[in-house]
Amino acid sequence: MITVVGMGPGKEAMMTEEALAALDRADVIIGYTVYLELLGDRFAGKEYLSTPMKQEVERCRMCFEQAAMGKEVAMICSGDAGIYGMASLMFELGEEYDAEHPGASMLTDICVIPGITAASSGAAVLGAPLNHDFCVISLSDLLTPWELIEKRLRAAADGDFAIAIYNPSSRKRHDYLQKACDILMEKADPERACGYVRNIGRDGTESHVCTLAELRDTQVDMFTTVFVGNSQSRIIGDRLVTPRGYKK
Amino acid sequence: MITVVGMGPGKEAMMTEEALAALDRADVIIGYTVYLELLGDRFAGKEYLSTPMKQEVERCRMCFEQAAMGKEVAMICSGDAGIYGMASLMFELGEEYDAEHPGASMLTDICVIPGITAASSGAAVLGAPLNHDFCVISLSDLLTPWELIEKRLRAAADGDFAIAIYNPSSRKRHDYLQKACDILMEKADPERACGYVRNIGRDGTESHVCTLAELRDTQVDMFTTVFVGNSQSRIIGDRLVTPRGYKK
Prior knowledge:
2 copies of one chain form a homodimer.
Chain A: E1 2-6, H1 17-25, E2 28-30, H2 33-38, E3 47-49, H3 56-68, E4 73-77, H4 87-100, H5 106-109, E5 110-113, H6 118-126, E6 127-128, E7 134-138, H7 146-158, E8 162-166, H8 176-184, E9 193-198, E10 206-211, H9 212-216, E11 224-228, E12 234-236, E13 239-241
Parallel strand pairs in A: 1-4, 1-5, 2-3, 2-4, 6-13, 7-8
Antiparallel strand pairs in A: 8-11, 9-10, 9-11, 12-13
Helix pairs in contact in A: 3-4
């Protein structure tokens, strides 16, 4: 069995019992180094394997090689394994592995265990920004053409969705959030209620509420998740709240 | 402290440790009867309070009344408390309570603990359908005008988002999924890869993959979450997989 495990934002208390049980059961835990380091002493006796960033394909193939040796394998991802995580690549490469290795059945041996994604964990810190229909959009253009990201931002604004924005910034993409806000403001009021959360579920968690116009001029880092309300969202105290409609 | 707790799909193994700890700490657990019944023996000694369905406002006010007596209160929601859950209503009513009760500070005492929402848990059962930008849309028009739901479905198709559809059906709304699929097919290929999961995280979990055209002619029930892939999604074995792009 190869289990692709969503570890949530990082701390053990935000993992599910079934995620912890899958790691307890594993002979080898495979993941990006930063995530392996977030795992506590509970798994100290396990074999840990990793590959550098951007070697995701190699990391997944490592899972199949280890499983072929008869080991119980857990691949860890931050947040949810199926939301910008490794789950889809594991299925794609599992299919390829089985085609290349007659008799292998890696594809059917892959099991995904969900975790708390930043849309959920960040929203909880900020209040309830995603409490109606919402979109999740990553601003990273490493794997996605920027034109498609722009198209999705426009569609999200057209649909008056609340939005969770992942990967709002990086060293090379310091102005992407600004560009995204400009696109959203083609349709959305600059006064639209927004917020952002930094270091969710880790030391030094901080959250801020602001307007869309203020968000445009805010420099966030790669450890931040950004939330844009819908037209009904409002700031209550220091929380960002998108009503579900029960109060009407 | 009033903690609004996301309990995930139902079984204890899919709750986070911090959610379980909040329930352990509570003097009184408040929630919709069906969710209280899902809680295991672990909390058998606690006081349980409930209101019938559609009395969400009363249920939230009950939290403030109990907290005002000095009790530690936990309000439980299925899935994630901030995704179609009670979190936003709690903030709205907390603000109201504080305005009506000089000296009260219910609003600042509300804390949200995230849980695994059906988009995550259902996706994990099905494979990796939401492994790129996605929308979450509820087809329930109890609190949302159907015209707005239609607008969001069109926007989701325009943006080529993967989509998780909540509340796809009910006794009174047996043809809503059919209507939703017809709207999506104005833009999306009828061969678009889709799937659905029933009874996520409970006894009798079942998942199916199909095309969008087949989904249109499928009768699902209220315990089902539906997933529509984006234009790049495909069915691999019996899984629905939306590539992230690592394999290119």
